[in-house]
Task: structure prediction
Amino acid sequence: MLKVVEQIAFLAAPLYALFFLVIDKQVISLVFGANWIPSCVVIPWLLVFAYFRLINTPLICMLSAKGRPGVNAKVNLTIAPLAVVSFLIGAWNGGILGVSIAVTLVLGIVWTEYWWWVGCRELGWQFRKFLIPCLKPPAIALVAIFICLGVPIMLKPFLFIAMYLVFVRLLAEKQFFLYHSLVGKVANRLVLEVRNR
Result:
């Protein structure tokens, strides 16, 4: 389970970060039309929320597989009143942007921490052992994003990928070499396929 969460996190965090870096008003207008430009202010917050929802999926599946699907309902019922209050506060203070921030904070970060705490307690696992793989990749991605913010949009994805790989190499060496090995295997297989044709 820990390996699944770790793999999802290290693959998803840079993908969501890349979406954050390349989605701007021009891209939204080009892809969806000018009517969708106002959505640009909520997209970064919803990307953070989407990341945490993805990270929580393996625990939901594990609890169901272990015969404890009611834990998910319990956590959802506990967090629901806080979510409703935060949405109302967000709407009153910031409109749609305030609601998207509330979604990120309550249903993303707070829900994830609470969910993993309850899930780990139910399964007899160490909470910290699972929380670190959930938070380490997005922390690495955030540092790489901040480095890329002042760069022209065409260069942002390339600089981000380079910075993300450097930081993963420095801070998560095992993951770096695992992916390096996998990329090498895929490249070798592609070369063999091309030669055999």
About this structure: The longest helix spans residues 70-123. The CA atoms of residues 14 and 141 lie 6 Å apart. The helical segments are 2-22, 25-32, 43-65, 70-123, 127-148, 156-171, 173-196. The radius of gyration is 19 Å.
